[in-house]
Amino acid sequence: MSLLQIRDLTKKIGSKVIVDQVTLNMEKGEILGLLGPNGAGKTTTIRMIVGLMSKSGGQVLINGTDTQAHFEQAMKQVGVIVENPDLYKYLSGYDNLIHFSRMTPGVTEARIREVVALVSLEHNINDKVATYSLGMRQRLGLAVVLVHKPSLLVLDEPTNGLDPAGIRELRGHLKHLAGQEGVGILISSHLMSEMEQMCDRVAIIQKGKLVGIHKISDMADDQRSKVSFEVDRPDLAVQVLQTIMSGNEITTDHRHIQIHVDKDQIPEITRMLMAAGINIFGVHTFRQSLEDKFIEITGGEYH
Ligand SMILES: Nc1ncnc2c1ncn2[C@@H]1O[C@H](COP(=O)(O)OP(=O)(O)OP(=O)(O)O)[C@@H](O)[C@H]1O
Ligand SMILES: [Mg+2]
């Protein structure tokens, strides 16, 4: 059974469809990114998943439990941070953890120590939250939602406002949680490169619709790459390539010609170019990035 199942999730406000029949599954130990530009519907989707906003249609199941029919039972297994974590500024980090853990019966002192270590806050846990940096507050927020050992973590734009070191650190914590503790993590962002580094799969959402789901590891193994040849006679090279590769778009930039081909076509291309008397000074292949994929899917329209 999937950790999270979302079926035809829809939100309408007035005549406007903000989230349009989103269907997706995610598994235990997986980090799934919800990627889309500002206003795409990420926060709305997340709010409906965790019951902070009513749905206009569709169904959400957490470990098979319907969130509508059995809200409390479903949410017991979920840790959520939408926007900024709610924390008491004038209490220490530790007292915040004690305060929030009272809502869940059976949280031990040992578990609190464990989550503090998990987010590397050992040295600051007795300081008042008012003295914390944004990154430290984010980490404490994460500790608060981890205390009750959720099997699903839902984080809306958790890297907002963090510096690159903070983002890297958060990424480390989340990968540890997913990899070592089997927590499923649903995370939203509008930053493609960040999603690419953080997630196992990325669901692209555009104008409320899910337009594609991509496994990052598949993209890394993708045999079709952009290849750039550095040559001394680019015009002639284009002519040669057009005869053997009709249909593939070829672009040139001074001495470089670029073409999307399968890797196993590279030897044939180099042979053809050399046979035409063209000198080759370099061959570079570029892995297709999430950004390329996104442009391929949406026709470059990122809004
Ligand atoms: N209460 C509301 N009433 C009307 N429209 C709303 C309401 N809440 C959200 N919207 C609209 O729904 C769309 C999706 O908003 P949402 O906040 O889910 O986007 P998002 O993907 O999270 O964007 P961002 O990257 O800016 O956080 C936007 O066009 C927004 O204007
Ligand atoms: Mg949002």
Q: Report the end-to-end length measured between terminal Cα atoms.
A: 34 Å
Order of helices and strands: EEEHEEHEHHHEHEHEEHEHEEHEH
- Residues in β-strands, percent: 25-35%
- The value of Rg in angstroms is 24 Å
How would you name the oligomeric state of the polypeptide chains in this document?
single chain
The bound ligands are: adenosine-5'-triphosphate, magnesium ion
Please give a structural write-up:
- The protein is α/β, with parallel strands linked by helices.
- 35% of the residues lie in helices and 29% in strands.
- The protein has eleven helices and 14 strands.
- It has helices spanning 42-49, 71-75, 93-101, 109-118, 134-146, 164-181, 192-198, 216-221, 234-244, 266-275, 290-298; strands at 4-13, 16-26, 31-35, 57-62, 65-66, 78-81, 152-156, 184-189, 201-206, 209-215, 224-231, 250-253, 256-262, 280-286.
- The strands form three sheets. It has a six-stranded mixed β-sheet with strand order 6-7-8-3-9-10, with helices on both faces.
- Strand 4 (57-62) and strand 5 form a beta hairpin.
- The longest helix has 18 residues, at 164-181.
- The protein is elongated.
- The two termini are 34 Å apart.
- The mean pLDDT is 90.
- Bound molecules: adenosine-5'-triphosphate (ATP) and magnesium ion.
- Adenosine-5'-triphosphate (ATP) binds next to helix 1.
